[in-house]
Amino acid sequence: MWQTCVCLHISPRFIFLFLYKHFYQTRLNLKIFSTWLLVRSAFFFNCVELLALLGLTLVSSQEDFDIHKICFVVFGLCGLAYFFITWHIWTFCGLPKETNAEIYSYKTKKRALKTFVLCGVLMSYFYWRHNEFCEPYVYSLFCMCEYVIVGANMWFHYTASYDFAHLNVVIPAKMGYLPLYQ
User: Fold this and answer.
1) Is the dihedral of CA 163, 58, 44, 83 positive or negative?
2) Helix axis angle, 138-158 relative to 65-92, nearest 10°?
3) 178 phi and psi, to 5 degrees?
4) Cα(141)–Cα(121) distance, rounded to whole angstroms?
5) Cβ atoms within 10 Å of 175's Cβ, excluding its own
6) Using CA atoms, how far apart are residues 58 and 145, in angstroms rounded to an integer?
7) pLDDT per residue as tens digits for the range 88-113
8) Is 123 in contact with 152 (CB distance < 8 Å)?
9) Secondary structure of residue 136 in the 3-state scheme
10) What is the pTM of this model?
């Protein structure tokens, strides 16, 4: 079920990747090299995050633990880098927050980032404790933090629904355009 859901929603995630790139290009002064570099870095880390998510979803830990573990680490680190860069762009690069939805999106991004960082630190600690001492229930704490990280990731990316609430997605058809929803 999880594999099916991730595979179905990965395409829209790539669409949002390009929407954010366009969003930043139209709202920021990309003639400033540092801003241009941040936007390009955000695009790169988000793209790698999505590919790693696909990898860790399609290769279960029971099939090949090493590949699954590498994909999860890349997913987590690239997600963290993307979140920090996005937060920096929204905070320090002069991105105007033009609507109440964008203001709410910004606040939600900050909360999701804090949750992600806190649980990432705890998850790393519990993983180390489990491997070092093999204490009872420590692996369960690691797993809980892992799921909260996945939830924080979804929470952060869900803010796109606020940032692009004014957009309608249209799928081209032979005889015209069909709206994605009506």
Assistant:
1) positive
2) 40
3) -110, 125
4) 12
5) 5
6) 21
7) 999 999 999 989 999 999 999 999 99
8) no
9) coil
10) 0.87
